[in-house]
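Researcher: Next sequence.
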Amino acid sequence: MKTIGAFAAGLAMLAGTALADEVDGTWQTQVDDGAYAYIEMGACGDKICGVISRTFNSDGEYQSENIGKQLVWDMVAKGNGEYRDGQIWQPSTDNIYRSKMSLDGDILRVSGCVVVICKKQTWARIR
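Model: Next structure:
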């Protein structure tokens, strides 16, 4: 009986690992309007979302009113490090952009467009 329980626990751990996505983890944004943030990326239902976890400016870490707010949502993993069909919020302008992401190791290229205005950033994975 103990063997069956250990086997079931092992399968449950493997299943949890299989559900993790390559983009899961903490990412540092580029500086925008004098500040940057750490974004916690992970699953939200069957899609990928990102929440602002820490904020920094030229004086160091500070407590922005944006901590805890969603920055990325509804991103769909398309395979091969490509993500599409999501939304991204730019706090400095309060604009929401249709967004896509491309993952290459510890680099995440994020881009978004609203009408004909497009913006890009390169984020770095925090270890």
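Model: The radius of gyration is 17 Å. DSSP finds one helix and nine strands in the chain.
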